[in-house]
């Protein structure tokens, strides 16, 4: 279970990007986070695995408080949090197998990583997962030879190789064409079910969010203003999530504060 | 609505007109002053042309009589540059990582940059003079000199490449809980590898050239042979050496160009 309490993130001395945010994700649900650019979706996701340092508040994953971890303990906690990126973030010049195995870097020694002596069970697991998403025949292909959809499949397999307790996907389909995008969303949903894995997906495409996820969280300028089943997301809720501009919103805050 | 303007001129490079004209006039005045105060003796220039004619006259035809000496000098230069390139590039890699702002902590970054600045601030000839004093005449001084020279260039260029990497790949490794060294090896090395190989080949090329120069001040190699030939007024032998140097550099240029084209 992921439990976020009173999370604040402020860059520099400006207005906070996340304002006292609470969010709980239980079980193996697929949750999508929607909201306009600048709403803080990416920051929220990156606070969870500490790619972004939260300013204050608590993030608790299965009993481990993530916000206070450092060094070795932080790395150990990150192993249990898989992440899928919008721009895939594959190592272009390495083969698909090396990219997939890079999800295990937190588990194996640097020497084993450098010499590419991966444990047998990791190789078996890699082939299983690559088979599952249909990229096993690319094992020896360089990652930059693949199409966008194939690259994102590598990204998903890499994250799953971590044997994660939760999967975070930061706009995983934003760089893909509509058809590939739906395939990846379907894949994430199916894998969540098969692996009993909670998945949190930042997404711009509301139609896909409604179709592929169990729960929609709507964010607007650092706050969660909608959190319900996809069916409950009506036009009024949509308008509220996507209305206004950051500027107008902040002016309102100031008016309310004064 | 008023009529749209139909004139436009590019804004001047220096916006402030007072500053602009001060700079222009100052530059012209300085050059005028330099021209008037430099002690250029046109008579000596004229004599020099005659002397240069005599040297070139004495150099033709080039003499390959002592080709054994020439070959020895050249092979020594080659050894110096190969050793110096290997040592310089190996040392450059950690220094480059130290000097890349996006991967090194601030104190380490300053240390790395300081090493590069020191290595770059002296021309190889000056470094060679120091090393010749320190370890004596001969190729070892040349190797040490060119190692310093290689670090100054390779570490700087490599550090710049590291600063330009796609940081998303590093982020992906971090997100997977990868330790520091594994992250470097997986997310950074593959990205800088082509540049690394290109720089190594270029540096070998460049060291071969520089080894001829540092030889003149006593650091071994074909430069020493060349300096001796000049000292003994063997201009025909000197020309032969020069031809070999130019030939070797043309050849290495062609080879390194071909290799660099193949690694992308």
Automatic annotation (TrEMBL), chain A:
<dbReference type="Pfam" id="PF00005">
    <property type="entry name" value="ABC_tran"/>
</dbReference>
<keyword id="KW-0547">Nucleotide-binding</keyword>
<protein>
    <submittedName>
        <fullName>Phosphonate transport system ATP-binding protein</fullName>
    </submittedName>
</protein>
<dbReference type="InterPro" id="IPR050086">
    <property type="entry name" value="MetN_ABC_transporter-like"/>
</dbReference>
<feature type="domain" description="ABC transporter">
    <location>
        <begin position="2"/>
        <end position="246"/>
    </location>
</feature>
<dbReference type="InterPro" id="IPR017871">
    <property type="entry name" value="ABC_transporter-like_CS"/>
</dbReference>
<dbReference type="InterPro" id="IPR027417">
    <property type="entry name" value="P-loop_NTPase"/>
</dbReference>
<dbReference type="GO" id="GO:0005524">
    <property type="term" value="F:ATP binding"/>
</dbReference>
<keyword id="KW-0067">ATP-binding</keyword>
<keyword id="KW-1003">Cell membrane</keyword>
<dbReference type="InterPro" id="IPR012693">
    <property type="entry name" value="ABC_transpr_PhnC"/>
</dbReference>
<keyword id="KW-0472">Membrane</keyword>
<dbReference type="GO" id="GO:0016020">
    <property type="term" value="C:membrane"/>
</dbReference>
<dbReference type="InterPro" id="IPR003439">
    <property type="entry name" value="ABC_transporter-like_ATP-bd"/>
</dbReference>
<dbReference type="GO" id="GO:0016887">
    <property type="term" value="F:ATP hydrolysis activity"/>
</dbReference>
<keyword id="KW-0997">Cell inner membrane</keyword>
<keyword id="KW-1278">Translocase</keyword>
<keyword id="KW-0813">Transport</keyword>
<dbReference type="InterPro" id="IPR003593">
    <property type="entry name" value="AAA+_ATPase"/>
</dbReference>
<dbReference type="GO" id="GO:0015416">
    <property type="term" value="F:ABC-type phosphonate transporter activity"/>
</dbReference>
Automatic annotation (TrEMBL), chain B:
<keyword id="KW-1133">Transmembrane helix</keyword>
<feature type="transmembrane region" description="Helical">
    <location>
        <begin position="80"/>
        <end position="98"/>
    </location>
</feature>
<keyword id="KW-0813">Transport</keyword>
<feature type="domain" description="ABC transmembrane type-1">
    <location>
        <begin position="74"/>
        <end position="256"/>
    </location>
</feature>
<dbReference type="GO" id="GO:0005886">
    <property type="term" value="C:plasma membrane"/>
</dbReference>
<dbReference type="InterPro" id="IPR035906">
    <property type="entry name" value="MetI-like_sf"/>
</dbReference>
<feature type="transmembrane region" description="Helical">
    <location>
        <begin position="110"/>
        <end position="131"/>
    </location>
</feature>
<keyword id="KW-1003">Cell membrane</keyword>
<feature type="transmembrane region" description="Helical">
    <location>
        <begin position="210"/>
        <end position="231"/>
    </location>
</feature>
<protein>
    <submittedName>
        <fullName>Phosphonate transport system permease protein</fullName>
    </submittedName>
</protein>
<dbReference type="InterPro" id="IPR005769">
    <property type="entry name" value="PhnE/PtxC"/>
</dbReference>
<dbReference type="InterPro" id="IPR000515">
    <property type="entry name" value="MetI-like"/>
</dbReference>
<keyword id="KW-0812">Transmembrane</keyword>
<feature type="transmembrane region" description="Helical">
    <location>
        <begin position="21"/>
        <end position="40"/>
    </location>
</feature>
<keyword id="KW-0472">Membrane</keyword>
<feature type="transmembrane region" description="Helical">
    <location>
        <begin position="137"/>
        <end position="155"/>
    </location>
</feature>
<dbReference type="GO" id="GO:0015416">
    <property type="term" value="F:ABC-type phosphonate transporter activity"/>
</dbReference>
<feature type="transmembrane region" description="Helical">
    <location>
        <begin position="237"/>
        <end position="259"/>
    </location>
</feature>
<dbReference type="Pfam" id="PF00528">
    <property type="entry name" value="BPD_transp_1"/>
</dbReference>
<comment type="similarity">
    <text>Belongs to the binding-protein-dependent transport system permease family.</text>
</comment>
């Amino acid at each position: 279970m992921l439990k976020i309490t009173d999370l604040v993130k402020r860059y520099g001395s400006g207005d906070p990007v996340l304002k006292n945010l609470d969010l709980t994700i239980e079980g193996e649900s697929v949750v999508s986070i929607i909201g306009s650019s600048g709403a803080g979706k990416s920051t929220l996701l990156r606070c969870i695995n500490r790619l972004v340092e939260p300013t204050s508040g608590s993030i608790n994953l299965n009993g481990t408080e993530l916000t206070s971890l450092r060094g070795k303990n932080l790395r150990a906690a990150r192993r249990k949090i898989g992440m899928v990126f919008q721009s895939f973030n594959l190592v272009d010049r390495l083969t698909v197998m090396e990219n997939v195995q890079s999800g295990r870097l937190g588990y194996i020694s640097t020497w084993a990583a450098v010499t590419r002596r991966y444990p047998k069970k990791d190789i078996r697991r890699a082939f299983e997962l690559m088979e599952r998403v249909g990229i096993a025949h690319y094992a020896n292909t360089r990652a930059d030879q693949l199409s966008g959809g194939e690259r994102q499949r590598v990204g998903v397999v890499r994250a799953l190789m971590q044997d994660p307790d939760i999967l975070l996907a930061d706009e995983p389909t934003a760089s893909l064409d509509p058809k590939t995008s739906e395939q990846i969303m379907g894949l994430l949903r199916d894998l969540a079910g098969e692996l009993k894995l909670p998945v949190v997906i930042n997404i711009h495409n509301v139609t896909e969010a409604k179709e592929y996820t169990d729960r929609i969280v709507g964010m607007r300028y650092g706050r969660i203003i909608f959190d319900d089943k996809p069916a409950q997301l009506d036009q009024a809720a949509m308008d509220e999530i996507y209305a206004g501009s950051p500027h107008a919103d902040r002016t309102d805050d100031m008016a309310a504060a004064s | 609505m008023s009529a749209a303007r139909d004139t436009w001129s590019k804004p001047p490079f220096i916006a402030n007109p007072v500053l602009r004209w001060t700079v222009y006039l100052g530059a012209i005045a300085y050059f005028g002053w330099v021209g008037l105060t430099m002690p250029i003796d046109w008579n000596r220039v004229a004599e020099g042309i005659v002397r240069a004619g005599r040297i070139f006259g004495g150099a033709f035809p080039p003499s390959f009589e002592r080709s054994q000496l020439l070959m020895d000098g050249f092979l020594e230069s080659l050894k110096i540059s190969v050793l110096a390139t290997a040592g310089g590039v190996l040392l450059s890699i950690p220094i480059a990582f130290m000097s890349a702002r996006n991967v090194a902590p601030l104190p380490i970054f300053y240390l790395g940059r300081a090493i590069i600045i020191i290595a770059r601030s002296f021309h190889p000839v000056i470094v060679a003079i120091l090393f010749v004093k320190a370890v004596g005449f001969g190729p070892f001084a040349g190797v040490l000199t060119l190692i310093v020279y290689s670090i100054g260039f390779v570490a700087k260029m490599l550090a710049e490449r590291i600063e330009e990497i796609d940081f998303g790949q590093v982020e992906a490794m971090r997100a997977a809980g990868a330790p520091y060294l594994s992250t470097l090896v997986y997310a950074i090395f593959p990205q800088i590898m082509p540049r690394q190989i290109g720089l190594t080949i270029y540096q070998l090329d460049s060291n071969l050239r520089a080894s001829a120069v540092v030889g003149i001040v006593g650091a071994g190699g074909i430069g020493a042979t060349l300096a001796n030939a000049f000292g003994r007024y063997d201009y025909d032998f000197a020309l032969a050496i020069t031809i070999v140097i130019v030939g070797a550099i043309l050849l290495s240029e062609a080879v390194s160009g071909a290799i660099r084209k193949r690694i992308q």
